[in-house]
Structure to design on (423 residues):
């Protein structure tokens, strides 16, 4: 136990963490260009927020939340997703009083008691964006476009954008009735969960993973066929805006979100080749959510993109990310006096902006040079008692093994020239 992490969690180790930093920085840069601002909400919230904001009949709320009573007997839940907390923060901090729409993004850990497998964890990370305060179809296209832009900048291939519309609450009422009529005589063949869903939430049968339910719902009436003229026009306009920015999409009538506050556009970005967990990113419009969470009726739309799945995809497609963190120089020393001087020199050079590694174990010079090689530094500074007495150090070019003597006062200038010119 003491040396085993909880099931479904991951350690992100040095070597891997640089990739995360790169992906996070790229997300921040892309968001900045599109005018989205970062928000950081707490890792835990009142459980009630997710009951309302995610929905009591969802898998997340029914089976996946990490909920507990805190020492003050409050019902607390580790956040399973980022939209409800962002809506809560929007309302609590009156962000609606600022010029609208409000465009936000977040990057952080989420927690779901899910069955762990490749691409599915109990602690995972999402990069997500939310726009509150505009129902304009160009916003739908911008949100989808931002996700595509991000993924394309990483050089990913085989991405598929699936879109659909679930209409407004009026369209869904109509659709619900036609679904109940459609499944009436198939009720006994549906899986147990869907059998129970039929009267309450038949829309969710459409995204049930059971092969039989999928087969039975093959010819079920689509949400698009029940969409009112206004919702049809909105969907049509979203498509026009997507075409305008060159995004290829597939209309997928099975793509639905079963709760009342989801409206109009639903979308997913899928990637071939990472098996069952092929959804990299999912999102959609939720014009009823802010009201559901206690605010004034305000349109909203967003997406969440899974970072672990993104990394799996990058590995699978053999896309390399720029490496970082290699030290500029290693300082080797021989003898106690030189160790002390190397300690000071390392800190002085770090303060000047160099990435410096040194020996901390009083190893032999040979062993220190081996360590320097392992760090893949271009140069090693060698401090011996003799050089030190003369105010000098040896500078060793690790590639050619040549050594020259330079004075300590010149090191900074010298390294600056050498490292900049990449000689
Ligand atoms: P969702 O919030 O369920 O719409 O999921 C949005 C994205 O988050 C998915 O497309 C995945 O990339 C990622 N995701 C969701 N659940 C998990 C999980 N348990 N483990 C890893 N990634 C996840």
């Amino acid at each position: 136990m003491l040396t085993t992490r909880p099931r479904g969690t991951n350690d992100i180790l040095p070597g891997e963490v640089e990739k995360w930093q790169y992906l996070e920085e790229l997300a921040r840069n892309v968001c900045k260009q599109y005018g989205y601002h970062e928000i950081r909400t707490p890792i835990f919230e009142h459980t009630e927020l997710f009951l309302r904001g995610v929905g009591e009949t969802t898998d997340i709320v029914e089976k996946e939340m990490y909920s507990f009573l805190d020492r003050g007997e409050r019902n607390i839940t580790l956040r399973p997703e980022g939209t409800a907390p962002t809506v809560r923060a929007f309302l609590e901090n009156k962000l609606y009083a600022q010029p609208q729409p409000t465009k936000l993004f977040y990057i952080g850990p989420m927690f779901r008691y899910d069955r762990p497998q490749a691409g599915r964890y109990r602690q995972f990370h999402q990069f997500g964006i939310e726009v509150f305060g505009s129902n304009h179809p160009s916003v739908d296209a911008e949100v989808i476009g931002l996700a595509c832009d991000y993924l394309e900048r990483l050089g990913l291939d085989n991405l598929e954008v699936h879109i659909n519309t679930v209409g407004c609450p009026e369209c869904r009422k109509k659709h619900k009735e036609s679904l109940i009529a459609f499944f009436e005589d198939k009720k006994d063949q549906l899986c147990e969960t869907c059998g129970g869903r039929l009267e309450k939430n038949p829309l969710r049968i459409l995204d049930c993973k059971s092969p039989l339910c999928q087969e039975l719902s093959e010819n079920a009436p689509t949400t698009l066929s029940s969409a009112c003229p206004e919702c049809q026009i909105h969907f049509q306009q979203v498509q026009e805006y997507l075409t305008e920015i060159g995004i290829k999409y597939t209309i997928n009538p099975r793509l639905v979100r079963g709760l009342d506050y989801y409206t109009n556009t639903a979308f997913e970005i899928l990637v071939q080749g990472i098996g069952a967990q092929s959804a990299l990113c999912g999102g959609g419009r939720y014009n009823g959510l802010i009201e559901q969470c206690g605010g004034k009726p305000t349109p909203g739309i967003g997406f969440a993109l899974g970072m672990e799945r993104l990394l799996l995809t990058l590995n699978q497609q053999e896309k390399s990310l720029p490496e970082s963190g290699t030290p500029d120089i290693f300082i080797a020393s021989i003898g106690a006096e030189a160790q002390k001087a190397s300690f000071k020199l390392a800190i002085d050079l770090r303060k000047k902006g160099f990435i410096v590694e040194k020996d901390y174990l009083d190893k032999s010079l040979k062993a220190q040079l081996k360590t320097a090689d392992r760090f893949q530094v271009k140069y090693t500074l060698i401090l011996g008692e003799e050089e030190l007495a003369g105010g000098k150090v040896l500078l060793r070019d690790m590639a050619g093994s040549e050594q020259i003597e330079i004075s300590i006062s010149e090191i900074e200038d010298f390294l600056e020239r050498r490292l900049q010119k990449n000689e």
Remarks:
- The first strand starts at residue 37 and ends at 38.
- Residues 17-34 form the longest helix (18 residues).
- The chain has a mean pLDDT of 93.
